Amino acid sequence: MRETLISLLEDCAGRGTETAFAHRQGLRVARWSYEALARAAFQTARWLESLGVTKGDRVLVWAENSPEWVAAFFGCLLRGAIVVPLDAQSAPDFVARVEQQVTAKLLLYGQGEPRGLAANLPQLRLTELSRLIATYSAEPYRALESKPDDIAEIIYTSGTTAEPKGVVLTHRNLLANLAPIEREIKKYRRWERMFHPLHFLNLVPLSHVFGQFMAIFVPQLLGAEVFLQADLRPRELMDTVRRERINCVVAVPRLLDTLREAIERDQAMRGRAAEFALALEQSAHWSALKRWWRFRAVHRKFGWRCWAFIVGGAPLPTETEMFWRRLGFAVVQGYGMTETAALVSVNHPFRQARGSIGKQLPQQEMKLDEHGEIMVRGANVSPGYWRGGAVESLKSEDGWLHTGDMGALDEHGRLYFKGRKKETIVTAAGLNIHPEDLEAVLERQAEVRACVVLGIEGARGAEPLAVLVLRDERADPESIIRRANETLARHQQMRRWFVWPQHDFPRTATQKVRRHEVAVTVKAQLSGTNASGGAASDELAKVIAQITDAQTTAQLEPTADLTTALKLDSLGRVELMSALEERFQIDLDEAAFTNATTLGEVEQLISTGTTPAPTIQYPRPAWSQRFPVTWLRLVAFYLLLLPITRLLSPTRVRGREHLRDVRGPALFIANHVTLVDQSLILAALPGRFSRRMAIAMDGELLRSWCHPPDGTGWFTRLHLRVRYALVVALFNVFPLPKHSGFRRSFAFAGEAMDRGYNVLVFPEGQRTQDGRLNPFMAGTGLLATNLRAPVVPIRLDGLFALKQRGRHTARPGEVSVTIGAPLQFAADADPAHITKELEECVAAL
Question: Which fold has domain 1-146?
Answer without folding.
Answer: Rossmann fold (3.40.50)
